[in-house]
Amino acid sequence: MRRVVLTGAGCVTAIGHDVATFRSNLFAGISGIHDVEDVPPGELHFSTIASVRGFVASDWLMASQTKLAERSSQFAIASARQALSASGLMKAYAGSDVAAVFGCSAGGRTAEEPETAKLYTQGGRIHPLTVPRAMASAGTSLVCIEHGITGPAYNVSTACASGAHALGQAFHMVRSGMVEAAIAGGHEAPLTFGFLKGWDSLHVVSPTVCRPFAADRDGMTLGEGAALVTMEAMDAAVARGAPVLAEIVGFGMSSDGHHMTQANPAGPAAAMLRALQDAHAMPSEVGYVNAHGTGTDVNDRAEADALHRVFGDDARTLPVSSTKRLHGHAMGASGAIELLATALALHEGVLPGNGHIHVDEALNLQGVLRENRKTDASMALTNSFAFGGLNAVIALRRYVP
């Protein structure tokens, strides 16, 4: 099987609309979390959110995309254009040799919800383009149409693990030789009033800000955004002089088979072990874990338990952090945004800090990073654990020419 590397990346996130800005704010610890806007006072039990501010769709959309691309698809279009430009992928491969595998769990809520509200309150017709705009796979289709990608293309919807599942499946397709190259990741823009009210009713959103693994953590911070990467066989990338960000070496999946909202640590542990097995690596080789780290009491405890099951005594000092403290929980896009953060950490030799918190001693994770740390770690895991117990873990290695 072939070795697979990341050769280009693009993103639209709460901490940057391109990789350079994302990188700068990630390592500077600059948060994209801000006060909720455009919601009447008293409607929500929380007051902060990690939405993408200042994104100008017209800077990215072609005329043919304007009527069809709602906000989530717009993020996908912008991220794909960045990644494909950085890698030069479509100049190197025929469209039929490239796969597009995206993760989007909520679909085009900003297109569907206003039309549904109008229907129930005013009657009348729904906009004729509501269906193609609201499809979760719309971003995949629009990117393929723009760039002439005619290989395997589809959308994955597994809640908060969507982007990670998409990346892992694309990785396996390239590694096996099913395709020569791929663009993969996740995009999500679900922050409509109905979505916020739905999450509010679950009482898992922080009334302050997300503080993963902190003793005083009080919930997650909802976000949005996108990240897409290009991947191809290492030999081919090196031969054509493509830039290499990192190497993907393993992918593991599991189902808890337990509960819709309460994680069973055995499921996440199985996914991590399967990612390591796929990478032909031992737990002792891992020098960093980019945690799912939502900042909820139950999920952080379950993830800590899973880390102890996989890493044993080493879990206590293993470097761990969750970048959700900066860009929020972008639902189906989170796994892709966090893969980008993890790849940059290995590439730059700097692990992003988890914030100046008092780490919950009950978790027994003394390695949770309060601030950035220089590292010579060669391998990292990035975790994505979704509602319904659907887990995806990706193993990365630092690329050394």
Secondary structure layout plus pairing:
Blueprint: E1 4-12, H1 19-28, E2 34-35, E3 48-49, H2 71-87, H3 89-92, E4 98-103, H4 109-122, H5 130-134, H6 138-147, E5 153-156, H7 162-176, E6 181-188, H8 193-202, E7 225-233, H9 234-239, E8 246-255, H10 266-278, E9 288-290, H11 297-311, E10 320-321, H12 324-327, H13 334-348, E11 350-351, E12 373-374, E13 379-386, E14 390-397
Parallel strand pairs: 4-5, 4-6, 9-10, 9-13
Antiparallel strand pairs: 1-7, 1-8, 2-3, 6-7, 8-14, 11-12, 13-14
Q: Roughly how many Å apart are the termini? A: 19 Å
The unreliable regions are: none
Rg computed from alpha carbons, rounded to a whole number of angstroms = 20 Å
How much beta, percentage-wise? Answer: 15-25%
Please state the average pLDDT score.
97
Helix content: 25-40%
Helix-strand string: EHEEHHEHHHEHEHEHEHEHEHHEEEE
How many independent structural domains?
Answer: 2
Number of strands: 14
What is the CATH fold-level name of the largest domain?
Peroxisomal Thiolase, Chain A, domain 1
CATH H-tier superfamily of the largest domain: Thiolase/Chalcone synthase
- Spatial order of strands in the largest sheet: 5-4-6-7-1-8-14-13-9-10
Count of individual helical segments: 13
Largest sheet: 10 strands, mixed
Summing up helix and strand content along with how strands pair, one would put the structural category as alpha/beta
**Name of the CATH architecture of the largest domain:** 3-Layer(aba) Sandwich
Organism: Terriglobus roseus
Family: Belongs to the thiolase-like superfamily. Beta-ketoacyl-ACP synthases family.
Subcellular location: Cell inner membrane
Keywords: Cell inner membrane, Cell membrane, Membrane, Nodulation, Transferase, Transmembrane, Transmembrane helix
